Amino acid sequence: MMTHLNFVSKAPWIARGTWVIIMLISSLFAAQWGITSTQVNTLLMVSGLYALVVIFAYFLCQPMSHNKQFMIFALDLMAWSLYLYHSGGASNPLITLFLTIVAVTSLVQSTRHIIGIALLSIMAYMMLWHFYQPLMMPHDHQSSEKLHLLGMFGVFVFALMMLTALTVYFKTAMGRNYRALQQAQQAIHQQRRVLAVSSLAANIAHEMSTPITSMQLLTQHIANQLTELDDDDELLEDIDLLKSQINLCHQSLNRLKTHIQHQETEQNWSLSSNTMTTQLDKLLPKLIADWRFLNPHINITLPPFTTPVHVHINAEQLYSIIVNVLNNAVQAEATDIKVRIEYAQSVIIQISDNGNGIELHKIAKIKEQQPIKSDNGWGMGLMLAKIILNYVDGDISIQHTTTPKNTTTPKNTTGTQVIIKLAYSESCLNIK
Length: 432
Fold this sequence. Notes:
Heat Shock Protein 90; 9% strand; transferase; transmembrane helix; nucleotide-binding; cell membrane
């Protein structure tokens, strides 16, 4: 859209440069057809003065208002009228270029200014018709006829080129605007889906807070009773484990409620996520440590970071996205997970596992940002992850992998590889 606006604002100056070139070429070409040197010099002088006016107007009349532009278009008409007056008046085929002045005016001016330039063009045409001054040529009839026909052909070619260029450009611009409109409509639809899930999560968080609090109090009461009775130590250990799991659920629920409240204070959900910066070299090791504590039977590796890395995404959102990917690997019966970081035009997080893999039709649904069927959840985690990452100039892709058998593995092994692309934050780009 901005490219389209820049082109439109420059169109009058591009046209004026073209008009100056046409004046100069016509003046030099007229000398080859026997027009007197006096008239040729007059035409060259008018062309030179017009070129100077264009240069001065370009540098001295910035910024451009509608009234300033109208005055300059009026000067364009005056310059062409003066040029045509000394080169055959209304009989000169170049008078058709008045139409190009009106056409360019219609790109950048208001309706009343366009009508004003159109009326001035008609008045200039009538004045040239009334005050006709013929060209002085040695062979008046034959030479003037050839010159007129050649001029008509030249004006036709120029008008055709200009019309074709404008038509092609505006057709392309309309296509870009239509695609941008489609993307905006899709973004609105995605936002509605995310907001619907957020509302559902808020309701669930509200409903779960009471039973979790009750379970905390009940387990504490049971633990106190068992301690007083000095009962089975193994049962006490089970109660302590249950308490830790309930506390973990309570912490996760509080984090969800805090995140929802924070989002409600923002005027725009996408703006909130776009203005956040996350230090990946701190978040990712903590995330892996937390996840490893809950899944000690899974071997997960992460190479150490050698430099601070700041990415353009909300920390809580990135945390949830990666945890969802790791949990999906566990559901696919993975026992070994490798996390790698690559640095290119964006930060790339590769998460590979040796699980059962993922079906191709599910990969296609993820690309289309549709939820997939899952036996262990709603199947919307990856869909929401893709929507969130798209808002912050990121992306997530998933593919099924197959490792051929070798000396250590007697049969082919399958797995899944998830690639998360994140944009660098502005602070990280400034450091680079």
